[in-house]
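Two proteins follow. First one:
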Amino acid sequence: MNAHALNEELTVDSLLASAIARTNGLSHFGDDNYRESLQALLDALSTEAGLSSTGLQMLQERLVGQLVNRLVIEDYLVRYPHITQIEIDDPLVIVGLPRTGTTMLQRTLAVDPRFHSAAWWETRFPAPLADETLAVPAKRIAQAKAEVELMAQVIPQILAIHPLDAMLCDEEFMLMEHSFMCAMDAYVNVPSYTRWLDQQDQRPVYTQLKKMLQFLQWQKAQRGEPAGQRWLLKAPQHLHTLHLLLDVFPKAQVILTHREPAQTIPSMASMAHTLWQMYSDNPDPKAAGEQWNSRMARGAWHPPHPAGPRPAACRTFPRHPLCRHREPADGRAGKDLRLRQSAVYLQGPRRRAEMAGAKRPGKTGQPRLQPGALRFERGADD
């Protein structure tokens, strides 16, 4: 699609107007720099992304949907101001290069009821839809399931790269997208936007994320779900902004997963190129590889937080996924995981008995997180 036609169809004002119309006149989107961020993204989309007509419609709907969510959430915060008083300062955060076992680890830990976690449907549809009650989010769940099923049909290879399930916990990346300051190069080829983003103060990503987690936790209480002790989060993007994450969530603990980058980065680039094909005509796989190689290299060597990281645990990609995780050092939620529950997700019923009887391996080869730096050492058996 040519840039002129795109510029006419996709503007900040048109997106905001569509969102306002869908919410019957709500107009407060929040107080951060969302307009500037949206404009930077739209400028790159018009000149670089090579959007197809279908891709334009999909991306337009995605952006309008995120703006609608912002409007609805801000409206709830005005009507229920105590939501912003919910304390969320100590999440357990899984970071690491993509394809290092972060999803497996997150879903294993999420079986512990002491964690709050967000299912895929909650990150995709964090705000109630029209004609839906807080207590029964059936409409959002149904739409999320339909969307996952459609993705599985249109791009079945994505399931081998990232296991999608609307009802299982997933990373908070789609929540972070509501700041319009996230890695949109996961969906489209927009290098100028990525360069612009690298020069910005990305604190709004985390202030918006915290606000949305507070809103999700409040909704869980309205549904009568058991209260957790802390949130379980996971997103590779945190590698680039750990200092901001630790400022907004000052008691957070970080689990850093590790795997040979030469294996993980090509896999992530393949996933990005697969997603590019949903939105663009003839996306360049070489461009995807170059961009994600550069981006993940910067993330892997991101300078540490001045106060040092708050390590909870680190492991290489697990040879035996049930036996190689361990509890955070301070004994908070995350220890004493239910082995049989973990086995249900990781291996299914046929492997449950075998996994439950496995012995815990020794500590030889365990990578060690050095104080003050995100740096790994490997033992002889790794």
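Second one, unrelated to the first:
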Amino acid sequence: MKAAWRSYRRNVGLILLFGLVVAAAMGVYTYHYEPDQYVSGVSLYIFPKGMDVDAKYNAQTAEMLVRDAQAIIRNPQILYKTEEKLSPDTLDGMRVKLSGIADTHIVRIDAYGQDPELCQRAATAVSVVFMEQMRNVTEIENISVAERAELPTDPVLPRRALKTALAFGVTFLLLSLLWLLFAPKRLRLRAEDFHEGKYGIRMLGRISDFRKDLPYYFRRRGTKVRILSQYVNRSTLEDVKAMAIALQQEPLSQRSLVLTSLQTDEGKSTLAALLAGELADQGKRVLVVDMDCYAPTIGRLFGVKGSRDLIHHLGGEVALDQIILPTAIPDLFVIDIVHPHSLVARMVGASAFAGFMQRMYQEFDYVLFDTPPISLFADAAALGSVLDATILVIAEERLTGTEVMETIQRLKKANNRLAGCVFTLAKPRRVKQYRDYEDSAKARAAMNR
């Protein structure tokens, strides 16, 4: 519920805007399409037979008189006789209402219409016919006019301001209620809404959005030495550094890591490259293996291109030294992928893969595997079942908590040991006093050329 409330507070401006739009539409409709309605009325004293005008008020008697009067005024003869006094067209669009005045023997006949003068004439004519009918039907002779019909000057309907205000209020309250009731089911997960106890894994970090920095990095193809961290904003680098520190607090046995995401375009491969670079900067010897044959990115991020990959080596076609490529970052190496189709499920069961990993543990401190999204392909689950741990990459505010929970359960059922999750593409946290220290990607790239 707290997450839904935070989401509601973030989107209350949108709800207010929608309420204002509905109120404006109601205002336009009432002012342009609902005509003014006027009312003119006649008040009548009515006393039962045998009751003097000075007699004490009797509520039961007054209520009975009002019921009788309402029954009489609905009689069609009232309409016919009123049309005789007025032209038939006069009553078109007119509405007559009879009501009693509390604590009195007075009834009021009101005529509603669009023409003030016709309202006055209709109220007078209906009251005359009504008094005649009351005397004939109920034998009430003591009936007189207490107040004559007057010419109305101001319209009473429609109540435009009230309708506009009600349209806004009802829309705002209804949308707010619907948001709080149904938003939690479709609420996009944010890092601050992630609870380790609920999802059963720890959060390794929250990585600021780096998508705006990548196009400029890929355009620098003519540069001989390209290092991704020199083109990415400082906020992202600080977040990756914090994640690397958190990762090294894990048991020393977690040296081979699978990075996977739920969907495409969640920044998984870029995060793998940045994390590998940060670990190498901290003195670790790192190998990044690209196993995402459907969208290979690691080679491009490090500016290398291989002609053979791990699948060729496991098949005995090439030596290991021929597929491990050095990068511009010391102690950081890459195995590119060239196969158009994945053979991970067959690969992990081969004895050659166990031998490969044994040698990698001897030569490197960390081996990172970049795999396809787990929701589309089973490669990550198959690979993670034979490696030390899996890191789940989640793009902030893109997936629901239910989707994340289902993916975590799926990985656990596949015997994946989850090192944790990391949120990517998040809004950078800016601190005012450090704003001057945030250099743009272009400025830092220029300094390193």
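SUMMARY FIELD: The radius of gyration is 41 Å. The first helix runs from residue 2 to 33.
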